[in-house]
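Technical note accompanying the year-one report. For the benefit of new consortium partners, we illustrate the data format agreed upon in the data management plan: each record pairs a sequence with a structure-token string. No post-processing was applied to the example shown here.
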Amino acid sequence: MTGEPRIGDVFGELLRDALAVATGVGPRPLAGGRLPRPVIEIIERDDGLVNGAPAAHYLAGPQEWQPHDHRAVDRVRGATLDVGVGGGRIALLLQERGVPVTGLDVSPGALAVCRRRGVRDLVHGTVDEHCADGRRYDTFLLLGNNLGLFEGRERAPAFLAALAAMANPGAQVIAHGTDPYGTTDPLHSRYHERNRRRGRLGGQLRLRLRYRELGTPWFDYLVCSPGELADLVRGTAWRLTDVDDRDAPYYLATLRLS
């Protein structure tokens, strides 16, 4: 026993258990008895902050979504790549609407859950790896705060270049982000300042996920303001054409291929 988690498919394991709890089918984690325990995703930040969030929202139906999710899917057109498909909640609705949608994820377990739930077209890998498949898309979705996959100044240009390599003329990216700077919590404000002193964007998080005995490697995940996003996009094949902040601090950013 080292006290450190075993590296594994955290996201896949917690989605599998969340689906079992939601459906009553399959082994479920128990709280020392017969009652299933809620499935909690543990998020550990590199300054020692630990948060937990119920995993059930990854499987939520449209009636439980936030308004910005509905506005995002209403903007979809053409062949669509759902980047970070998770439990498949967005892809399933798009399928029902007749949209040709592909779900992409690095988690084999997440893709297995998506298959069980009926998502038909799934790809295992990163956006960089998927480039080699020769597929082309009209819409790229980065929902569920997946604008965070930009990671930071260093990674964003390559991530956007990978999307551009798979883009049909006139393609769009619809991304959900969160402006982190309205917080009144000094724990977060101090973290932003610490990041800036280190040459990072204020909301550039260094995280790992935990579930039961499993953990992920540490990774960067970006929470940025619309202004910072505009700076990251400048000079790439994309241009920022719209920011919908009706649900501030959450926002939907639309990028279009230049």
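Partners are asked to follow this layout when depositing records. The helical segments are 10-23, 67-74, 89-96, 108-117, 127-130, 156-165, 186-197, 226-233.
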